[in-house]
Amino acid sequence: MQAPSILATHEPKAAREVNWEHLWDLVVILTQKEIRSRYKNSALGYVWSVANPLLFAIIYYIVFGQIMKVPVENYALFLMAGLLPWHWLANSLSAAPNIFLANATLIKKVRFPRHVLVVSYVLNEGIHFVLSIPVIIGFLLVNGMSPSWSWLTGIPLLLVAEFLIVYGLAVTLASLNLFFRDLERLTALLITVLFFLTPITYSSAMAPAPYRTLLYANPVAALIESWREMFLHGQLSWLWIGSCYLSAVATLLVGSFVYWRMAPKFAEVI
Amino acid sequence: MTAICFDHVSKWYPRYQSLSHGIKSSLLHLPETLRSLKRERIRVLEDVSFRIDKGETVGLIGPNGAGKSTTLALMAGVVEAEAGQVVVGSRVSPLLELGAGFHFDLTGSENIILHGVLLGLTRREVFSKMKAIITFSELEASIDQPLRTYSSGMIARLGFAIACHLDPEILLIDEILSVGDFSFQLKCNAKIDEFKRQQVTMVLVSHSMAHVQRLCDRVIWLEKGRIMGEGAPSVILAEYEKSAQLRHGEDRSSAA
User: Using CA atoms, how far apart are residues A245 and A44, in angstroms rounded to an integer?
Assistant: First the structure.
């Protein structure tokens, strides 16, 4: 064999640099794919992304509002304001373990930044959430309330925070599931647990003191409460938003670390 | 100029299967699991060295499980070598197997964009090549239909048409040339000859000896992760066939 040491110089520098235009195009194209493929085969399209949380809202309204008589005003509106952002998170996380698996052939053959698959999935669910915000406005108007100017700052801030949190958790699940396939079943359970540990059907103010600290250990609690307070009362608590971003940074760090450690092995185990 | 260089490359896969049995059992027996991970490794490539010059067409041959696809995966950069160094010089395009990276609910033209971007082009670049790709694929009539209405031959055409227009400097071809009808195969062959003239480096994995004989300048024969022979197609193919027949004969005599 010839001496290969001199060959290292052939490695092109350009290939090592990130091509931002291409990365952006990947995100756009994969998100479009997710959205189109969801709607192409369903006549009702948009209705489905609202119908699901709406159905749950009706069930919880009957069970907790009418039967158990939770003392919350405008309980239906209260539920919707928490359930819609929750569904973005829950839908993304329950799909997360399968995101890389569903693209196995691609991951085995083509070199591209794999986390883009997770980014576009979470974005796709996020877009459905944004499109469902008018439903909340509808509920507000029915109850004789109206949107507030604070939404203009609140919505972008919380969208970014939720995207980062969901992405951080989803990329962790998607990566780990390639190595521990049990995670898929575990995820479904964890989402149910997380649902009841998050103030969606109740508000954190209703929880007795010792449980309240437990609630604040949940990185999603502050997020859902922030959304609801903003939708219902136009109020933004900077303390809560701050803690949302703290959770975002934490989940993002964990997710990036797991992804960074495991991504080179994806093609081998998938 | 060298396009691809493997310098004493070894690749082994740990037995991840033992982990996928379940978290519970692997956690309960954690020290054992870790030990078994270190011990139970499957060697796929062992101390493989070769270099491929720019513009060369090289065939990888060998029985199933010889490490051909792993070699391609190392070239494509989707897996990393455990030992040794892999240096790949320029823009690599893998030719994907049927339907990989396609989405069946999207139309032909939407799939061209999806596929092109996944393989490394920007959207602007894909748009500028769109017409040429459609013309080459000869699918003008059905390009706005969803892909699930396509026959497998039509999908193969689309895939090949896209790959041809990526301006690859290195093209990795894994057993897909025998698709499409006869006239499209002639077109593929003509395109590959054109690539040769344009000094595109091609690495071809194939079990079709006729393909390898016709297309390749050089052949690398892998077996159980080692290089058994390397050189002119006629010489290496003859040796390979002889060894395969020998093994077949042994199998028969041991079975008898």
Answer: 36
Backbone φ and ψ for A222, nearest 5 degrees, come out as: -60, -35
pLDDT for A223 equals: 95
Return the amino acid letter for B149: T
The pLDDT of A182-189, averaged and rounded, is 93
Calculate the alpha carbon distances from A174 to A103, A182, B52 in Å. Answer: 11, 12, 37
Q: Is A261 on the interface with B (CB under 8 A)?
A: no
Number of other CB atoms surrounding residue A11 within 10 Å: 12
Q: How far is A62 from chain B (nearest CA, A)?
A: 39
Q: Does the distance separating the beta carbons of B49 and A4 come in below 8 Å?
A: yes
The C-alpha of A126 sits at a distance from chain B's nearest C-alpha, in angstroms, of: 21
pTM of the predicted model, to two decimals?
A: 0.87
Closest residue of B to A24, CA-based? B122
Residue with tokens 């002119």: B232
The answer to whether A120 and A34 are in contact (CB under 8 A) is yes
Cα–Cα–Cα angle for B61, B66, B71, nearest 5°?
75
> A5, A23, A25, A124: best mutation site toward chain B, by most B Cβ within 10 Å?
A25
Q: Which fold has domain B94-167?
A: Helicase, Ruva Protein; domain 3 (1.10.8)
Is there a contact between A29 and B51 if contact means CB atoms under 8 Å apart? Answer: no
Q: CA-to-CA distance for A243 and B42, rounded, in angstroms?
A: 47
Q: Which amino acid is at B255?
A: A
Instruction: Tell me which chain B residues have a C-beta less than 8 angstroms from the C-beta of A36.
Output: 105-106, 110
Nearest beta carbon to residue A110 from set B2, B24, B101: B101
Q: Which of A187-196, A198-207, B155-164 has the lowest mean pLDDT?
A: B155-164
Residue showing tokens 């948009």: A46
Tell me if chain A has a CB within 8 Å of the CB of B78.
Answer: yes
ipTM of the complex as predicted: 0.82
CA dihedral sign of residues A34, A38, A41, A47:
negative
Say if CB A230 and CB A151 are below 8 A apart: yes
Q: Which amino acid is at B66?
A: A
Q: What pLDDT, in 10s, does the model give residues B150-187?
A: 988 888 888 888 888 888 888 888 776 666 677 777 88
Distances (CA, A) of A163 to A129, A157, A189, A248, B247: 11, 10, 22, 8, 58
Q: How far is B249 from chain A (nearest CA, A)?
A: 34
pLDDT at A1: 36
Look up residue A205 and give its DSSP letter: G
Structure tokens at B170: 């290195």
For residue A206, the distance in angstroms to the closest alpha carbon of chain B comes to: 37
